[in-house]
Write a structure and sequence with these properties.
The chain is α+β, with helices and mostly antiparallel strands. Helix content is about 20%, strand content about 40%. A hairpin with a 5-residue loop joins strand 1 and strand 2.
């Protein structure tokens, strides 16, 4: 009888540890980013990123803006869920004047405060060096 209960105990124990680890992982990820979530950010490369609104809601359109120094170009961009895996949402940045912008929205999830990450790939056209910049932001569900 004990042999049957022991595997159930270990599975439940590891599931509880995994849930606790993911919460610490999100806090760790925020500490290692260069910018505060939802606030305008200027990266060491001179790339600036900001949102149309400082507070965002799921399934509500918003715009992501970026300003790049001369010689830099956006080659790829996508949104990824950090708090919860939500796949990824490709972003289409369009250059309008001196600004790049992407009109987008994200889906609703079971978390009240969902952390999302913009993964922005930038190409230096002079040196042909690519860099990936991460910009985090929260989307809050009004429950």
């Amino acid at each position: 009888m004990l042999i049957y209960r022991l595997p159930i105990f270990f599975v439940a124990f590891f599931l509880l540890i995994a849930c606790d680890f993911s919460e610490k992982n999100e806090a760790q990820l925020l500490k290692t980013t260069q910018c505060d979530a939802n606030l305008p950010c200027t990266f060491p490369s001179g790339v600036k990123v900001w949102l149309s609104n400082s507070t965002l809601s799921p399934e509500t359109p918003f715009t992501i803006f970026s300003e790049l120094p001369n010689g830099l170009h956006i080659t790829d961009a996508k949104l990824k869920g950090v708090t919860m895996y939500m796949g990824y949402i490709p972003q289409q940045f369009i250059k309008k004047g001196g600004l790049w912008q992407s009109n987008t929205m994200v889906g609703i999830c079971s978390e009240k405060n969902m952390l999302w990450r913009l993964e922005l790939t930038i190409l230096n056209q002079t040196s042909s060096v690519e860099q990936v910049l991460n910009y985090d932001f929260y989307v809050t569900t009004n429950i």
